[in-house]
Specification:
The protein is of the alpha/beta class and about 350 residues long. It contains 13 helices and twelve strands. The strands form two sheets. It has a six-stranded mixed sheet, with no helix packed on it. Helix 12 links the parallel strand 8 (about 275-280) and strand 9 (about 295-300). The chain starts with a helix and ends with a strand.
């Protein structure tokens, strides 16, 4: 099913762009021929900008890479909403043939939706969750959990600085990062010295992270090397026990085909002490629950980022976002503090979780 979907998406993207392109030319009859040619060139360059930026990520100059990546990712969502709006407008024209400004109305509506989505993205929700464990802690612990920061060309140093300030304002004892801290390439993190901002996170009991699929996409060895320049402790099928008695269990990402099984990694823990399991992709949630994991933290889904993708993602996962108490486990799946690609949240929210463990 997933393979078929990934094959269909590029086809649908090209068809959608072609549909909007034809409607645009039809609405711009006032342009001279040279103007239509220039507009067409710009249109299709932007339409494939994201593809070019991803394919040429190690070959293009950094500035060009950033411009193509940002422009292309914005275009991705703009086309989605333009297609949806134009389909409605074309249906309206069947009943109201005199309605001649559908393209311009749809363009204005899409611009408003994108503006709302950008505002929503820039204002993460802080979810505060009180959790009472049935295993002993020597003292209450405040945990801040984030995921999917996607540092790179789209999420840069200035936005990272705001994220660090938001994390520190929660006065955490522990900070957990559930993968995809890095986007597609470590290069912009090094060029902009983002390790400096990451080193400003204040958590007396430590900052812990597991790899996500994007740490592998960006090159796991490069990601590991970069993280060594920060206070972040990377957990790859490893366990850390804190002085308060809490165990932090970090699973490697599914990209590592040799990672430990759930049963094997749980067997390495002390079942009499509480544990938090970090696992980037929220698969096998029910199985983790049955194995006695006390708290699970994941990310990865972004809950689709924008409508209607959130509806599809909700059907794909046992738990696609937010907090839920299973029979034993307290499970939190983050929608992501930042996001991949388009800087919009429409029908979803950027988030950060604050757990009060007792």
């Amino acid at each position: 099913m997933m393979k078929i979907l990934f094959l269909l998406l590029p086809i649908l993207y090209i068809v959608g762009n072609a549909y909007v392109y034809v409607r645009m030319l039809y609405s711009m009859v006032f342009l001279p021929l040279w103007g239509k040619i220039l507009l067409s060139v710009v249109y299709w360059v932007v339409a494939f900008a994201l593809v070019v930026s991803l394919v040429g990520r190690d070959k293009l100059p950094s500035v060009m890479q950033q411009v193509l990546y940002v422009a292309g990712s914005i275009w991705l969502v703009a086309i989605l909403y333009m297609v949806m709006a134009l389909v409605v407008a074309d249906v309206v024209r069947i009943f109201l043939p005199t309605f001649k400004y559908g393209f311009w109305c749809c363009s204005g509506l899409t611009a408003c939706v994108l503006a709302y989505g950008y505002y929503n993205y820039c204002n993460p929700v802080v979810n505060k969750i009180a959790i009472t464990l049935d295993k002993p802690l020597s003292t209450p612990v405040r945990v801040v959990a984030v995921s999917d920061v996607h540092l790179g060309y789209a999420t840069g140093k200035e936005r990272l600085k705001k994220y660090v300030e938001l994390i520190n304002s929660q006065n955490p004892d522990i900070v957990l990062i559930a993968g995809d801290l890095i986007d597609n390439n470590v290069t912009p993190l090094r060029e902009n010295r983002m390790n400096e901002e990451l080193s400003q996170i204040v958590a007396p009991l430590g900052v812990y992270m597991v790899p996500g699929n994007h740490e592998y996409i960006s090159g796991i060895d490069e990601a590991v090397s970069f993280l060594k320049e920060t206070p972040i402790v990377l957990l790859r099928d490893t366990i850390v026990e804190l002085p308060c008695g809490l165990q932090i269990v970090g699973r490697d990402d599914r990209h590592n085909k040799r990672r430990l099984s759930l049963r094997d990694i749980v067997a390495k823990t002390d079942s009499s002490k509480p544990m938090i399991m970090l696992d980037h992709q929220p698969y096998q949630v029910a199985k983790k629950d049955s194995l006695g994991v006390d708290v699970q933290v994941s990310g990865h889904t972004h809950r689709g980022q924008v409508f209607p993708m959130n509806m599809l993602v909700d059907m794909m996962y046992e738990q696609s976002y937010g907090y839920r108490k299973w029979s034993h486990s307290h499970v939190y799946v983050s929608c992501g503090l930042s996001l991949w690609g388009p800087p919009f949240r429409i029908g979803t929210s950027s988030d950060i979780a604050v757990f009060e463990l007792k």
